[in-house]
Amino acid sequence: MSTPAKKTATNARKKATAPPTYANYIQGAWVPSKNGEVFANHNPADTRDIVGYFPHSTAEDIDAAVAAAAEAYPRWRLVPPPKRAEYIFRVGEILIRDKEAISRDMTREMGKVLKETRGDTQEAIDMAYFVAGEGRRLYGQTTTSELANKFAMTVRDAIGVCGLITPWNFPIAIPSWKILPAILCGNTVVIKPAEDTPLSVYRFVKAFEEAGLPPGVVNLVTGYGETAGAPLVTHPTIRLVSFTGSTQVGRLIATQAADKGKKCSLEMGGKNALIVMDDANLELAVEGAVWGAFGTTGQRCTAASRLIVHKKVIKKFTQMLVERTQALRVGPGLDPANEVGPVINQDQLERVLHYIDIGQTQDKAKLLCGGKRLTEGDLAHGYFIAPTVFGDVAPQAVIAQEEIFGPVTAIIPCQDFEEALAIANGVGYGLSASIYTSDINRAFHAMRDLETGICYVNAPTIGAEVHLPFGGVKGTGNGHREGGLQALEIFSEWKTLYVDFSGRLQKAQITD
Amino acid sequence: MSTPAKKTATNARKKATAPPTYANYIQGAWVPSKNGEVFANHNPADTRDIVGYFPHSTAEDIDAAVAAAAEAYPRWRLVPPPKRAEYIFRVGEILIRDKEAISRDMTREMGKVLKETRGDTQEAIDMAYFVAGEGRRLYGQTTTSELANKFAMTVRDAIGVCGLITPWNFPIAIPSWKILPAILCGNTVVIKPAEDTPLSVYRFVKAFEEAGLPPGVVNLVTGYGETAGAPLVTHPTIRLVSFTGSTQVGRLIATQAADKGKKCSLEMGGKNALIVMDDANLELAVEGAVWGAFGTTGQRCTAASRLIVHKKVIKKFTQMLVERTQALRVGPGLDPANEVGPVINQDQLERVLHYIDIGQTQDKAKLLCGGKRLTEGDLAHGYFIAPTVFGDVAPQAVIAQEEIFGPVTAIIPCQDFEEALAIANGVGYGLSASIYTSDINRAFHAMRDLETGICYVNAPTIGAEVHLPFGGVKGTGNGHREGGLQALEIFSEWKTLYVDFSGRLQKAQITD
Amino acid sequence: MSTPAKKTATNARKKATAPPTYANYIQGAWVPSKNGEVFANHNPADTRDIVGYFPHSTAEDIDAAVAAAAEAYPRWRLVPPPKRAEYIFRVGEILIRDKEAISRDMTREMGKVLKETRGDTQEAIDMAYFVAGEGRRLYGQTTTSELANKFAMTVRDAIGVCGLITPWNFPIAIPSWKILPAILCGNTVVIKPAEDTPLSVYRFVKAFEEAGLPPGVVNLVTGYGETAGAPLVTHPTIRLVSFTGSTQVGRLIATQAADKGKKCSLEMGGKNALIVMDDANLELAVEGAVWGAFGTTGQRCTAASRLIVHKKVIKKFTQMLVERTQALRVGPGLDPANEVGPVINQDQLERVLHYIDIGQTQDKAKLLCGGKRLTEGDLAHGYFIAPTVFGDVAPQAVIAQEEIFGPVTAIIPCQDFEEALAIANGVGYGLSASIYTSDINRAFHAMRDLETGICYVNAPTIGAEVHLPFGGVKGTGNGHREGGLQALEIFSEWKTLYVDFSGRLQKAQITD
Amino acid sequence: MSTPAKKTATNARKKATAPPTYANYIQGAWVPSKNGEVFANHNPADTRDIVGYFPHSTAEDIDAAVAAAAEAYPRWRLVPPPKRAEYIFRVGEILIRDKEAISRDMTREMGKVLKETRGDTQEAIDMAYFVAGEGRRLYGQTTTSELANKFAMTVRDAIGVCGLITPWNFPIAIPSWKILPAILCGNTVVIKPAEDTPLSVYRFVKAFEEAGLPPGVVNLVTGYGETAGAPLVTHPTIRLVSFTGSTQVGRLIATQAADKGKKCSLEMGGKNALIVMDDANLELAVEGAVWGAFGTTGQRCTAASRLIVHKKVIKKFTQMLVERTQALRVGPGLDPANEVGPVINQDQLERVLHYIDIGQTQDKAKLLCGGKRLTEGDLAHGYFIAPTVFGDVAPQAVIAQEEIFGPVTAIIPCQDFEEALAIANGVGYGLSASIYTSDINRAFHAMRDLETGICYVNAPTIGAEVHLPFGGVKGTGNGHREGGLQALEIFSEWKTLYVDFSGRLQKAQITD
User: Fold this and answer.
1) CA within 13 Å, CB half, C69
2) Is pLDDT at C165 greater than 80 in this prediction?
3) What does the H/E/C string look like for C307-354?
4) How do residues D40-91 score in pLDDT, each as one tens digit?
5) Which positions fall inside the Aldehyde dehydrogenase domain (chains A, B, C, D) (predicted)?
6) Residue C402: which H helix or E strand, with range?
């Protein structure tokens, strides 16, 4: 995840008429920020369109939300998990019912095309059904004891109040990855979504409300990182901070959490390689590269921002890729004819253009297509960038090392399989990787030796399913995984239980 | 774990004759510290006895050891885990053979009685056999995919070079908890043991050498926290820091690790409650309290430093406990007649005596027995403290809140079961707890509601078995567990693998 | 489960007007039996009430159903499990919607009170949500290989066409235990429900139809054991037979299945002990005994048909139990005031009365209450038996050894805990057991030493939850368990996969 | 496994001098058969060499052994599993020490070459270390309850006395697969090994004796199937029968076990296909085919007895295979120069020659090499058959459908991948399969669609590792797997435990 750069905000009381004003959700009630301030949420495809006004919250609001969560915690922790799960199943059903409306709102507030926002919503649905399945599982272990008449076992226990900080690129999917396992495990939460996408989380939280979730279990506070996120991270009652976003912000949060003795889970940046071997199905590889590089306008932590291509096929691959890229239709995501939407905001626009400049000037890479903002007609009102492909990029080039988080990808030539792996592993991140090859031996070698948390064979670097762990190594994470049962390791603590029913003092390891 | 306070060290080149001088183990060779300096390791039961001289290592030595581990890593990672396990089984067999000698050395260097050092060695043996069993397990998951002709699975992968920092109270058991799963998972390690107990770890490392472990997989560097531990924590090549020790030092290490983007696992302090209900088997409870409070001279992170006793039985319990405590025979651990050995060093002696003073003066608690240093005869040459029981201690008293890490325990009266739980949970730590009761309903309520990582019923707060997770919540840990399969979550990273064998681009969650 | 004794059937073409005629469900269509014959389904609370007519199917119908299942199998096996699960979630939602109607029908056709038939339907709902959760799990294992460059893993695979034979006492819950995991695992099924309760299964199958399940995946054939069940068991295409019913019939089926090389899963009879210790909460124990013995009119395989009571409390317990039993209101289950309904049919009525006679004459036990058919007023039209308690029953008495499957329980005195266990274990069955005691040591000893598949502490012998394994040892089963993930062991086969990507011949265990 | 055809036996009291006479092992003592009779164990490579005389046991001996096992059971069941495991680790260490001697004895009594008998012994060693690892695992599950204040969990329990019947082709490996998990789970056993290989099991049992296993836990009775095996299967005290051998005998045993209500686990025949695709590494495929077909003289249940080869490469493959086959050196296994040993006995010799005759006459297949007994020089005293390859074999030919269990393989041509799968699946067995292909898509399709319990990619059909499940579908098994954790499903029963600590009657699924 890249740094969630800020949209221009109106830190003023709302004046205009049309766009609705939304509220925080604290203790089961919809309330404005204590200071009464709001910020505007713009449509990145047309900044004239204000989606709504959201509370510009500060530490006071965080305090209230954390207090609500703390109050709800002892009771929620004792609700039998199958009952907790019933709320989540209901949330899943509500999301199915409202999928289209939620997805349209999401496209409007963050830009990616409707097909993808539907996928985003679907991911929250899938996560709801998957996580709710833990209501009747949450397995711990019974095991043996080395001592007679002693019983030994483990159970999972809740942690307490969790602070969740989520980005704008998967506005409902990522919150679902955090909120759902957190509350299934018996925790209560306060979520502070990115200031660019509060509406999607609002709609998500509405589903919890409709499902009848007890007040205080899920609390929503909108606002900015410095003013609302920071006090959440350092709040003494918060036992766990779960963050998805840039590596830079993630490290800072982790350091603060460590200093305060909080548990901390991070999902951060990526610089993901898609390797194309000489025996690859090129058609398939190109299609995967296009989708991997430009899906979500390249604003995925798993985006295929590096294409490592075998010299034998690089010429043909490049030609096919550029052709396909140039044919991509860019425009507002609500128009079903468009394939690529805008980037999220002005800062992000500038950041991407800056990297495109570096690629040409500093890295001396070959700009094959794209490389500029699109401003024809109504596009001028949005943050549109033409999908950009660089060729002949050196593995150590800036655009081959740093996360751009936009519709830009870099073709890096390689001599053979071993070099491909070395290049792929030669970055500071370790989130996702992909290899296109028809050879089973190479595929298994790659799966073993690629230094990433996720690895695809003959599929692009993106496309995780909710029931498998998601996350990365090296600069990408701090050892945790979301998705899959591995998420339970974040949101619960193991408790080891020994019952000695021998009626006498027994000592493990010690012979009297 | 309390702060590993330092022994008086001789930061000078060794002059005397008799005591042997030991070396660091780097890249399969025994080498002195680069600066040639050593420190003396004294017998805490008789400080005239110098156990040996050990390298007073600094950053240079750490660099060499980390380099060795880094060099060994790529090859070791590819050794099939069943083969890795064979080395560990062999280590287990060697420890069985040398158990008595190792245990005597351990008593000599750190003081606890021989019966307990044998238990300590046995724990490393048990851990070896348990962890080696993962050589043919290390299970990941195969699972389903929502897309046809797509295969999805997870595997565990190694992390890289691990830095391990271990305390003096379980000089071989705790290193075994870290080294064994670390290398079984394919990592290589550098261990920096407490300066008070380098000999035990030396002997442990000798077993790896004899087992034929490839050079560089396990490296040992002795020295002090500031000079040898600190550079290990911050070394850029180190991917994971695993620390057992005081909460204060642990937080500092965690903060540094977070700042550098390293994974970090912490096992820290405890203030463990042993609850005695009115329906408890009092005989058993007293025996458990004595063993829980004074085993290892109270220097266990799981020591029963709080005894929360129901008012109906407190009088009788107190009388029985004091009687049993006063009967404990204190003296050098090598004499089989002794039941309680010395504390580890001068700093720790002073720290414990200081808390005993606070208990009397500031906390106004009732000193029921012990409370002073023992200096009769040869005891004067050691760090002996009479086992100490305080009565009528308030839940908020300093000695009922802070970790003392010595032979001191505090009896806290309670009115009923609910109050007992509230007192038990009313501290900043969350490692171990215990309840003595014959009532099954109370036992299950307590197991559910005690806020600790480990909970015992009708057994003292100490006595973990290697195959169950060990660690705590709140101020005790940062979410990880050692022991059991849970240790694998520390020493490996999940890798998610998707193989799409459909021959076409498929998109999870998205319907075209 | 006892032998499903037959209701009087009208093996004639249907003549009357009012009651509806139902059909078999084969290949997604509702079809009559090939011979056109039907049998009547009577209300056991009032045999004048004909619930409906159902196909009196024979081998021809079984052939057609098996053929449909076989045809559907190859495609269904390849439907991604998350998609299979979506059908099952939908079935769960439909059952929630229709819960009341289904439950009323169920009470009408098999007699148990409405509160219990609602529980029966709820169990199918719970099972649907639980099993569907496996759609994104179905975990196999990735593991290590002792050889380099070799990958090893396991997956679960489907088995083929399954033949399911289910009893009348849990007319929808038990079919849900079999159909749902069977189809989730990729199998297709033919179910032959007990002739006493075809309507409940009809309603269940309607839910699959409404959910859009592909034709042929679930097929329903109604009829009798000899004419429809037998040809299902021996059909050459059937790969697995899953049966719940009497031990006698189960053994016969298992023998036939073994002879034909089919997999076979059996859940059979029980003779379950509820132990009451002298330290038990007597109020709770009596309540549990009444519910355990007379719930479902005693027609549960887990019914508490033996009450083993400590001599110190037997007098009081007996008095309280008889009092509570005599107060039970017996009558048609649709009347909410009634607590106990009729037994299922004439054969079962006679069987129970026969055992009551044996208890008095042969066993010389003391009839404390009940012991006769109830025929006052409209009860004369149903199969009502007064809840019956025998006292002073010897452990070896017929009524303490054989499964009665009716509202009859036997109080057996015991001297102490050890004798209680010996009596409890002294029968040929091993399904469920229960102990009432407040002592934690006794509870854990009992949980360890009771020879049953299910064991309760301070709860009656009945009340399983869907996500835990259900089944028994000794005469009760053949090693399988339904419910929980253990059900997957029945309905799938493990497949071990090795991929050698070394490019050379490697030999496990062998050193060249 | 094929039918263990009998060696010529001397059912007479031993007269000669040299060869030793061995005894049964019952209740920790070495005892002759009650009738005092023995049978001779010949060396199949030279029948003049009598390996020893073994008890010709009957029902009386079985009775004594079962009684010993039954007596030992209650105590052994309560030995803490980590302690049970220590015996097994010790057995593993003894086998390592004696590996060479055991392996030489094994070659002498059953013929396969020394390299392979060393592998056989190694497999028992690996199994010992693997299974012993369960001593500190044997995991059951703690889980949630839908009711408040109720605890729910599962544990594994022992079954009782197990009867084990093992074949001669893996004389120590297969007994290790059964005995070790059986006793680790707390059962006691009686083993009746094949009459052709009693010495190997004798040596195995000696290791248990030396390890100090309590008397009665493992009992050995030698003899024939009809006289010693049959009474073991039907003995009323036996709770579980585990059999490896022919499908014919297996079905009979299963039927008897079902009739008596015993649990039964079967590993039976195979007719395993090795598929060679046109994109295969032919060199590797040929090497794999030779090893798969002629390893253990083809007497493996996993032998590659069918080679399904793509038409494009069949000519070259055939030529290479025949060349390699003809070069195999056949002779006594103790001579390290030999690669293929004799078949086990006269019956098996005749059976294999009979199939070779059928292949030529009835199946009209092309005999490419081998096809006859070898009788030159000393070979005349042994049961040697030249490695035999048939070409142009039709999928439905007798030699392509029935298990031969000898050094005979059949090349079957195929048109494409789909046909290869269809042919591979077109037999009544389902044990092992293998595919040689470099294409990852084909490999994954094959792994999914081959109807076997074990599947290899680019490795022959043989070579299982102990920690993965072993066994098959269709005619090969009855749903169980040996090896891996799946073996625990055979040798233990699940017990579900519910503890209600609410103090009131709660009812699952039912709302009052």
Assistant:
1) 33
2) yes
3) EEEECCCHHHHHHHHHHHHHCCCECCCCCCCCCECCCCCHHHHHHHHH
4) 999 999 999 999 999 999 999 999 999 999 999 999 999 999 999 999 999 9
5) 30-496
6) none
- Clarify whether residues C325 and C441 are in a common domain: yes
Confidence of residue A17 (pLDDT cuts 50, 70, 90): low
Number of separate helices (H) and strands (E) present in chain D: 13, 21
DSSP 8-state assignment for residue C512 = -
Tell me how close the Cα of B144 comes to any Cα of chain C, in angstroms: 6
Question: Could you tell me if B264 and B301 lie in one domain?
Answer: no
The helices-and-strands tally (H runs, E runs) of chain B is 13, 21
How confident is the model at residue A4, as a pLDDT? 40
Please, which residues have CB within 8 angstroms of residue A367's CB and are 6 or more apart in sequence?
A: A356, A359, A360, A388, A389, A390, A391
D444 to B151: CB separation less than 8 angstroms, yes or no: yes
Q: Is the pLDDT of residue C6 over 80?
A: no
Active site annotation includes C267: yes
Q: How far, in Å, CA of D124 to CA of D131, rounded?
A: 10
Number of independent structural domains in chain B = 2
In a domain, A59, yes or no: yes
Residues of C in contact with D489 (CB under 8 A): 479, 489
Q: Do C349 and C298 fall within a single domain? A: yes
Contacts of C453 in chain D (CB under 8 A): 493-496
Res D11 pLDDT > 80: no
Chains B–D, number of C-beta pairs less than 8 Å apart: 62
Q: Residue A29's domain is classified under what CATH number?
A: 3.40.605.10
Domain range for residue D441?
273-457
pLDDT for position B379: 97
| B488 and B358 both lie in a single domain | no
Mean pLDDT of C114-130: 98
Is residue C113, in this structure, part of any structural domain at all? yes
Q: What is the pLDDT of residue D17?
A: 59
Kindly state whether residue A16 falls inside one of the protein's structural domains.
no
Mean pLDDT of B155-166: 98
Report d(CA A19, CA A42) in Å as an integer: 10
Q: What angle do CA A259, A261, A264 make, to 5 degrees?
A: 95
Give the model confidence (pLDDT) of C461-507 as tens digits: 999 999 999 999 999 999 999 999 999 999 999 999 999 999 999 99
Q: What is the pLDDT of residue A511?
A: 84
Q: Are residues B428 and B368 in the same domain?
A: yes
Same domain, A282 and A252: no
Give the mean pLDDT of chain B: 96
Residue A451 lies in a domain: yes
Region of residue B228 (left: phi > 0; alpha: psi -120 to 50; beta: else): alpha
If asked whether residues B324 and B365 sit together in one domain, one would say yes
Provide the greatest CA pair distance for chain B: 87
> How far is the C-alpha of C476 from the C-alpha of A414, rounded, in Å?
65
Residue D26 CB partners (closer than 8 Å, separation 6+)? D61, D64, D65, D68, D219, D220, D221
Say whether A42 sits in a helix, a strand or coil.
strand
Percent of chain C residues past pLDDT 70, beyond the cut: 96
Q: Which of A154, A443, A457 sits opposite D142 (nearest CB)?
A: A154
Average per-residue pLDDT in chain C?
96
Residue B445: which CATH number? 3.40.309.10
- Measured between beta carbons, which residues in chain A are less than 8 angstroms from residue D457? 440
Give CA D396 to chain center in angstroms.
Answer: 26
What are C398-410's pLDDT values in tens digits?
999 999 999 999 9
Indicate the residue type of D405. F
Are B30 and B145 in a shared domain? yes
Report the amino acid identity of residue C186: G
Confidence at C17, pLDDT banded by 50, 70, 90: low
Mean pLDDT value across residues A432-448: 98
